Amino acid sequence: MSAAPVFSAARAVWDALRRLSGDDAYERYLGHHAHAHPDVPPLSRKAFYMSEQQRKWATINRCC
Amino acid sequence: MNKLFGIVLAIIGAFAVGGIALHRNEPINAMWLVVAGLCIYIIGYRFYAAWIQARVLSADATRATPAERLNDGRDFVPTHKWVVFGHHFAAIAGPGPLVGPTLAAQFGYLPGTIWILFGSVLGGCVQDMVVLFMSTRRDGRSLGQMARDELGPFGGFAALVGTLVIVIILIAVLALVVVNAMKGSPWATFSVFATIPIAVLIGLYVRNVRPGRVMEASIIGMVLLLIGVAGGGWIDQSPTLRSMFDYTGPQLAGFVIVYGWLAAIIPVWLLLAPRGYLSTFLKLGVIALLAIAIIVIHPDLKMPAITRFVDGTGPIFSGKVFPFVFITIACGAVSGFHALVSSGTTPKLIGSETDVALVGYGSMALESFVAIMAVIAATLLDPGVFFAINVGAGVVGADPATAVATISSWGFPVTVDQMQDLARNMGEHTLFARTGGAPSLAVGMASIFSSTFGKGLLAAWYHFALMFEAVFILTTIDAGTRVGRFMLQDFLGHFWKPMGRTSWYPSVLISSALIVAGWGYFLYIGVIDPNGGINILWPLFGIANQMLAAIALTVATGIIIKSGKLKYWWVTGLPLAWLAIVTTVAAWQKVMSPDPGLGFFSGAADMASKLANGTLPAAKAAVAPKLIFNQQLDGWLTIAFTIIVWLVIVDMLRVAIRAARGLPTLANSEAPRVVRTAAMGTGS
């Protein structure tokens, strides 16, 4: 009896949580950047986070 | 198989709805509402939404979405449908579906429940889904832009004005709810105030200590928020400390106004963004907990199905059940505001056109289910207690003995001892006249939570529930002020270029101050109103929100007809016709009614004559001129909004008739069809 399926299920839940909360946004940005603009150095983690906040809160993203 | 499943659901659903409607003289269990709701939402989603998606919208799974075509790894990112569902739900879920159904419970549980269920599956969910689809076809353009592109400049202008007005009134009414919840309660005030430094701390953490680690920061923040609630209880015990957090309504309104302005001008990462994370975590967590707890304890509802107040004599707000139950429920069934989220952020994440049913329709169905839970939390209270909490001192009298006598005389017995016991259990000085819906919802939630997750913690649960409501109301206040500021800057930029530069500091300060002054005015009037303010402000908000929904449905109907689908006009056209009737009748009554409790102008005239005759009590006479002016202003606002909505409808009909006759209209503004390729799906 191996524990591997339990680990992979836990891993999937963890990944889904990170995806939903936006925790993995920087990794996804790096992934996209690497193949879309390989010649341009990517933003640092902090610079990326800051510019994301500006973008997200410049539009209606909360309701009644 | 699908059909069999549908038939079984339909039978269970019909049985549950029938059970709700026919149980009259005995208490009904909350599970009837839960089961009826789930069946109706699933049938609506599986059959109606799927049909709309396939037939009316002709969603095309092979057509690349803007997220795929314009993938930039940030704004436009093709995203898994359940993740988009989560984001979209977190964006549309606000305090409206909690407050509206609580207030509408004055009619009994039945009218509100029926409108929440059927209004959402036939109206609100359809609106959200159709607007989401149309914006996805147009590279994520906003409702205002789509109105301008498809109908003409007038439609675009109306959508812009409608949005700005509703943002201002929405913020005012929500701020009033928070102020009323904190008024004279050091425990609540401390827990709510504590959320501000906690958010700042989290903001610094996610920026400087561990950049972008949102999850761990949110978990730390949640723990701090809980410590804040516990700390409030401790402060409440100390006579000196508690006096530092004991404020009147006008003082708290002053705090909220200054706070709102500061929050709008400081960088987003410092306060708004971290609180956004915390409020999303809290919101999803509390909604899940509430659903579990309601199913575990499945309480009986003590409120009658229909109360005598359907005749229009209700003490929480005036007006008959038609049209005011529809206006009051607002966001729990149909919310025009959702059309702004559905045409903005969300379409840029849609990975396939066939995801819009789940994301648009499904999220609104869940939002509507939150409204059902709010109905349950309000109606499981003793009706006498419910009215004692929610009716303003101006209606039943400030003295507890008079208040209970008046409420008991309506047929809802309640005693002073009962209210004092309840207040003591909840850790409050008094629960009389705590208008706005938040305190009564918190009492309901506290009783549900404490009987599920441990008795004896009533007071802590009560203040946790208040803090929960306050956190996401404050998020909506900050985010709304900021969005209002951008819209105002955009508008003022037409007259003087520098004002339109969103990062030019003088423009930021001035436009933020103007937006805050707009909602601050309505908040201040609400706070000084002896009737609680919510009875005037909430209907105004409800009318504005439903009229914005009418504008969104008008744009959608116009686009459906223009795209050659005239035979399906009714999918959005019938909800539009219903909303147009409901809001126009409500607006007519609020403007023309001779009943001073209902009509804005007759209310103003009545108060003016009492002021002239000297029959007003001194406290009321002091504020009367402001209240008179405000009622007249509200009347004119209602008139202006109604005229705008009807002009948009007429404009749409003009375009629709031309389209139906084959005459030229503005060109279809959809982005050209591009077939999805394997290279596009790299965004995960």
Task: Tell me what you see in this structure.
The complex is a heterodimer of chains A (64) and B (684). Chain A has 64 residues and is mainly alpha-helical. Chain A contains three helices and no strands. The model of chain A has no long low-confidence stretch (mean pLDDT 87). Chain B is mostly helical. In chain B, helix 9 crosses helix 13 and helix 13 crosses helix 21. Chain B is globular. Chain B has a two-stranded antiparallel sheet. Classes of the chains: A mainly alpha (64), B mainly alpha (684). At the A-B interface, helix 1, helix 2 and helix 3 of A face helix 4, helix 9, helix 10, helix 13 and helix 15 of B.
Task: Please trace the helix and strand order of chain A, writing H or E for each element.
Answer: HHH
- Biggest sheet architecture of chain B: 2 strands, antiparallel
> Share of helix among residues of chain A?
55-70%
Distance from N terminus to C terminus of chain B (CA atoms, Å) equals: 32 Å
**Rg for CA atoms of chain B:** 24 Å
Terminal residue distance of chain A: 50 Å
**Approximately what portion of the residues of chain A adopt beta-strand conformation?**
under 5%
- DSSP E strands of chain B, number: 2
Helix count of chain A? 3
Number of helix segments of chain B?
27
Strand order of the largest sheet of chain B: 1-2
Biggest interface pair, counts: A-B, 36 and 58 residues
Question: Average pLDDT across residues of chain B?
Answer: 92
Ranges of chain A where pLDDT stays below 50 over 5 or more residues in a row are none
